[in-house]
């Protein structure tokens, strides 16, 4: 008689579902699946849950607070790529540099200067994305579409910092189709900037799409999708 088969953990199952959805979106858009990285957004979630995601094969994790990321960095295996996706204060930059794989949320020259300064000091290079407020929402950080190319060019002139692409946080909507326009616009912007052939700028990364809209984002060219709730469940914030 067979023993009982342990139920696959919910996190493992969620990851399988998200991966399948990404695969299907790639197919619809005639894209190669290998172009898209799934970032498991683990903010507010305990280490045990990150371990489960790691067991399921996740190696890219996203966090939005420096201290929380550093605690998890110390507690988790060394082959994880850590993504900073939250608004970043200049006085926290030094903790990240040398540990973070990609900073998605650079939205000012002063922040980039601080990252560059710290990278030079440590003798490392740092990869970043410029955050764009494509929808022009009052409540969101990020540059305007109009300012983006200038900011990218200015940052590219700094030592030890590479602009790998653009990131956006689309509005919260019930119907993900409403965000398609913003993903299309971010992609256009990245193509425009790429054409300018700026030194130290590659525009190979487009970080867009979250639990509610990552499939549409993949259809429109996302290379990184940031999925939290869809993997780990709803977040409860203790204030
Ligand atoms: C929290 C967060 C996410 C994940 O959001 P979900 O809707 O839970 O998938 C993605 N990107 C950023 C910048 C975030 O802060």
Commentary on this structure:
This protein has 239 residues and is an alpha/beta fold. The chain has one domain: Alanine racemase (TIM Barrel, Alpha-Beta Barrel), CATH 3.20.20. The chain is 39% helix and 18% strand. It has 9 helices and 8 strands. It has helices at 10-28, 47-55, 66-75, 93-96, 109-122, 145-156, 180-195, 214-219, 229-232, and strands at residues 37-41, 60-63, 81-84, 102-106, 126-131, 161-167, 201-207, 224-227. It has an 8-stranded parallel β-sheet with strand order 7-6-5-4-3-2-1-8. The longest helix has 19 residues, at 10-28. The model has no long low-confidence stretch (mean pLDDT 96). The site of pyridoxal-5'-phosphate (PLP) has 14 residues, from strand 8 and helix 9.
Helix and strand run: HEHEHEHEHEHEHEHEH
Shape, principal axes of CA atoms: globular
Report the strand count. Answer: 8
Tell me, what is the CATH class? Alpha Beta
CATH homologous superfamily, by name?
Answer: Alanine racemase
List the helices and strands and how they pair.
Layout (H helix, E strand, L loop, with lengths): L9 H19 L8 E5 L5 H9 L4 E4 L2 H10 L5 E4 L8 H4 L5 E5 L2 H14 L3 E6 L13 H12 L4 E7 L12 H16 L5 E7 L6 H6 L4 E4 L1 H4 L7
Parallel strand pairs: 1-2, 1-8, 2-3, 3-4, 4-5, 5-6, 6-7
The structure holds pyridoxal-5'-phosphate (PLP).
The site of pyridoxal-5'-phosphate (PLP) has 14 residues, from strand 8 and helix 9.
């Amino acid at each position: 008689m067979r023993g009982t088969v342990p139920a696959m953990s919910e996190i493992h199952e969620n990851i399988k579902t998200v991966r399948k959805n990404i695969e299907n979106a790639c197919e619809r858009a005639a894209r190669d699946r290998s172009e898209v990285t799934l970032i498991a957004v683990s903010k507010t979630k305990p280490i045990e849950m990150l371990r489960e995601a790691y067991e399921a094969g996740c190696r890219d994790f996203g966090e939005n607070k420096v201290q929380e990321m550093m605690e998890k960095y110390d507690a988790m295996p060394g082959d994880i790529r850590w993504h900073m996706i939250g608004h970043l204060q200049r006085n926290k930059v030094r903790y990240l540099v040398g540990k973070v794989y990609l900073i998605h949320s650079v939205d000012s020259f002063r922040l980039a200067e601080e990252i560059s300064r710290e990278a030079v000091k440590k003798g490392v290079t740092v990869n970043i994305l410029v955050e764009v407020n494509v929808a022009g929402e009052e409540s969101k950080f990020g540059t305007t579409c109009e300012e983006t190319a200038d900011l990218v060019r200015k940052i590219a002139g700094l030592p030890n910092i590479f602009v790998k692409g653009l990131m956006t946080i689309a509005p919260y909507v019930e119907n993900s189709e409403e965000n398609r326009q913003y993903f299309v616009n971010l992609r256009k912007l990245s193509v425009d900037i790429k054409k300018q052939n700026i030194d130290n700028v590659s525009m190979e990364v487009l970080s867009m799409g979250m639990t509610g809209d990552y499939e549409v984002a993949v259809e429109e060219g996302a290379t990184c999708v940031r999925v939290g709730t869809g993997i780990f469940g709803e977040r409860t914030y203790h204030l």
